[in-house]
Fold this protein.
Amino acid sequence: MSEYAQIPMQFVGPLRVSGNTVQGEFEVPLATYETPLWPSVNRGARISMKCDEGIKCTVIDERMTRSVLFEAPDAGAALFALEQIKADFSELKTVVEGTSRFAKLIDLHSQIAGNLLFIRFEFTTGDASGHNMCTQAAEALMNRILEKQPDLKYGSISGNYCSDKKATAVNGILGRGKYVVAEILIPGKICRRFLKTEPHKIAELNIRKNLIGTLLAGGSRSANAHFANMLLGFYLATGQDAANIVEGSQGLTMAEVRGDDLYFSVTLPNLIMGTVGNGKGLDFVLENMARMGLTENREPGVNSRRLACLCAASVLCGELSLLAAQTNPGELMAAHRRIERGQ
């Protein structure tokens, strides 16, 4: 019996990426059973190669979180303890640095519900996605807080205010993982020739489908066509915890006409990924990382930011291609019949 699930994988591209974090032409791996995804993302990649700057990627922020839960006698005691915890922030930073070479405490947020105190610790974690690193740091923080706040009792090492692998508003508002924006300016003639559509049709469909349609469906901080498709393929091919596409796919697609050109962007505030850690030592993952130039020795955190940019660029390529296809009646289903069913 095989110890591995065999998931088809292909490299797509090259795609052209620019920005302060990563520049150049790259091929990226996608592991998926949805075979039309490869040519769809490839079409978007082809567009990037036709544009001067390609896909511009900007890392807006990065932080990994773990929320802990304490029980207090009442709300007043919870508030008093919270004020003391905030006053001890510098000491708490030192506690975290004693748990890891790379974990740094950068902020905390809180909620009090009845007699329960929830604290959301936020860390930087170098090139690791940081799940275990943050949990270990949070455990040390809880122990120190319980020593200094006798009125508090242990509730849970994770209080769901993190929020890990769940579709919540807090991650989009406060951030969890890498916050990345990828954007491209596509000349109208390129749009018409290679996407077989007009810039204004994509912009209009984005408003009607991604914004209004998602609003009617009750989407939570999400307005996109299929971020999850590209995210899952990229996560599986690079050794990430694929369950994090739940919050990762909470992102926004924007499209607008600028003269005769199409401005198109994807905003992904919750990309949880790394280039080191659990899952990254598998042979195929190491090969994929090397092919993307992500095994070189760099300052801690740089490789993971570069990885997040390539992921966001892949999402843009697939999102652009799908929306273009959906402006034309019959194109989407025809592609699936041809690629998946051989018709």
User: Anything to note?
Assistant: The mean pLDDT is 95. The chain has two domains: 9-61+177-340, 63-156.
